[in-house]
Amino acid sequence: MLAVLNVLGSMLMLFSVTYLMPIVTSLIYRDGMLVDFIYAGAGCLLVGASIVALTRKHKRELRSRDGFLLVTLGWVLMSAIATVPLLLGLPGLTFTDAFFETMSGLSTTGATVLTGLDTMAPSLNLWRHALIWYGGMGIIVLVVAILPLLGVGGMQLYKAETPGPVKDEKLTPRITQTARALWFVYFLITMACIGSLRLAGMGWFDAVCHAFAAMGLGGAQGAFELALKYSKEREQFDKPIGSFQVIAFKLADMATEIELARLMLYKACWLCENHRPFSMEAAMAKMFCSEMYHRVANQAVQIHGGYGLMKEYPVERHYRNQKLLDIGEGTSEVQRIVIASHIGVPGRGM
Length: 350
Description:
The protein is mainly α and 350 residues long.
């Protein structure tokens, strides 16, 4: 237990670095949150350093059960520490609501109990979006990427944090290299998204926030293109299977749903860019894009037949990975609650 606390303290010290982004944002926008974020970051660093100092004699290699305990404690404690800026910046906010907000971000659930987000201090709003971004790849995986600095092994943490069969597949021989590779790709995709939104006319701040909270429509488009390509190459009865009506209709339905999802997403972005209320439209777009991706990936695998479940065919990854968007970045159930509240039915009854 004390060995787990030792690593947990190091994790908190590393987590304190994440406060630098809102601190810089507060300096740029002069939104009055600078001191609050400095206090929060310093507090996180002090708590982590104190835990490390008190448990340094118990430092050792982690076992598998230690990994699961550390991941659980890490999520809870980091979410609790992350509430400090919200509590300092929003005086009327209770700890329960603040903890719900930060846990919702780090777990990529995406739900919120806050109102007036458009008028919130930019650094505080960025902090909310950044928590979702950290949770998107996994804050524990981020820690694993720099575990050599902690002097402990990372495979137990990686296996406990990563869902699904991919946890047993190393991209590179060392787990720290795998984690760094994952975060490097994640970072590059985020930068590309930010740049694209900026080129499209969105302000830098909004582009960063949207990029941190984005992802889904592109996956469906990728699955559709793989299915379309396969339908033109695969032949039955001396004809491409795409020439058969049943396959052609599946592809037509997939293309229609993707285009509909794209229009919903564009509308939500347009409302945001023009400073109009967009919470309901954003929830609708997220829910529809996620569930549409599931339907498209399912049909793409169906078109591939048995090959669709083989790792040699890229469509298998879409079918496996799409589930993340149903449960991440705001579950479909949570999005329905948000939509229901906007149309006048709370939707929170049992």
